[in-house]
Amino acid sequence: MAPAATTARNKPNAAQVGRARAEVNQTVTFVWYGTDARGKKLKGEEVAKSATLLKADLRRRGINATTIKPKPKPLFGSAGRTIKPREIAVFSRQIAVMMSAGVPMVQGLDIIANGQANPRMKNMLLDVKTNIEGGASLAESMRKYPVQFDELYTNLVKAGETAGVLDTVLDTVATYKENIEAIKGKVKKAMFYPAAVLAVAFIVTLILLIFVIPQFESVFANFGAKLPAFTLLYVNLSRFVTQHWLIMLVIMAGTIGGIMLVYKRSPKFARFIARASLKIPIVGQILTQSAIARFARTLGVTFKAGVPLVEALDSVSTATGSPIYNEAVKKIRDDVAVGHQLQFAMKQTGLFPNMVVQMVGIGEEAGALDTMLFKVAEFYEQEVNNAVDALSSLLEPFIMVIIGIVVGGMVVAMYLPIFQLGNVVG
Questions:
Q1: What spatial distance separates the first Cα and last Cα of the chain, rounded to whole Å?
Q2: Burial of 145 (0-12, 13-18, 19+ CB in 10 A)
Q3: CA-to-CA distance for 43 and 33, rounded, in angstroms?
Q4: What backbone torsions phi and psi does residue 13 show, to the nearest 5 degrees?
Q5: What tens digit of pLDDT does each residue of 281-336 get?
Q6: Buried b or exposed e, range 277-307, using 16+ CB within 10 angstroms
Q7: Alpha carbon distance 9, 19 (integer Å)
Q8: CA distance 375 to 383
Q9: What is the pLDDT of residues 406-419, one digit of tens each?
Q10: What is the pTM of this model?
Q11: Pairwise CA distance, residues 423 & 19, whole Å
């Protein structure tokens, strides 16, 4: 009995096993210096579990390591920039190509990680590789990074692993991420272009008001003549901006910060902004088409991967990029869960065009729902492209007119007294 009791006491519990595995899976970035067989000095940077293991690995490669030390951490925060969705899309395509070519998962992750320019991305992929070496699945390893690999992404990978078609699913995921990032880029382009031009116009106007107009005002004061009302308007505006620019800056920053804070913390305000945005001419059309394209693309990918429709809709509910459509998808999910057809549930929301509803209905009847959803996504992605091009063409003359009125008006106001003085002298 005593030996059995001793064995039971010495047997590690689940927490101790978990800590031991975590310690084994931990990796450190080392900087090493050494020489090769010819005596040539070499240096490098590699990730390993310990300096001893790294030294042994270097020796096998014909390198005599003289110094191995952990890479120093940066003074301010973590090294590397934030991992962008575009980097995840590129990684998805790379790992899909590796798997299709028959490259082992661990080796593929190691190759991709060492080719990353972003240290954070590299460390994340190496950690995923280490977890897989420790016995975890790819989906489980990715779930440690929910910001980069969301629930939809990991669910698709898990479905591929379960069905034994991970390479096919990864190719589908890569195509999905590329299309989603492309359409997000188009929408950002549509929003960024007019905002950037108007911001430049605003900055130029401030420069003229703060630095240029006061110079003209001192010149006009020497004339002793009465200034035109149009010129006085800009002179008074310049005085106000010059005297109160700090207060104006604080008010503007506070207003923008307050709106962003309320938008993040108040779902009602976010819905109000989203609903109002959908009603803006052309811009609302782009946002609507973008949301439908993302809905169709995401649902098609998840359904094709073998995820049940209700679970697929649950994943899609946060993928449309619009709070209005996100809520609509949740209602669709609830209706489908109680037995309604997808086309009927979509029609009840009143947010999907009749063509989309009809194509989904045909797909349901023919047993080709994923194919029809992909066709809907392709159609609306092209519509977004066309709408963005149309918006750019429409805004260019409109923005030029605004800039001409603002900047040109200030120039006319400053030179108007000079013109009048010339007429008097003549």
A1: 122
A2: middle
A3: 4
A4: -85, 180
A5: 878 888 898 889 889 988 888 888 778 888 888 878 778 888 899 899 999 999 99
A6: bbeeeebebbbbbbbbbbbbbbbbbbbbbeb
A7: 18
A8: 12
A9: 778 888 888 887 77
A10: 0.66
A11: 90
- Alpha-carbon distances of 49 from 64, 77, 309, 312, rounded to whole Å: 19, 23, 43, 39
Q: Distance (Å, rounded) from C-alpha 327 to C-alpha 70?
A: 49
pLDDT at 354 over 60: yes
CA distance 292 to 297: 8
CA proximity to 388, closest of 397, 380, 400, 378: 380
* H or E stretch covering 413: helix 369-425
For residues 377 and 385, is the Cβ–Cβ distance under 8 A? Answer: no
Q: Report the distance separating Cα 161 and Cα 172, nearest Å.
A: 13
The set of residues, in sequence order, having a beta carbon less than 8 Å from that of 121 and lying 6+ positions away, is: 80, 83, 87, 91, 113
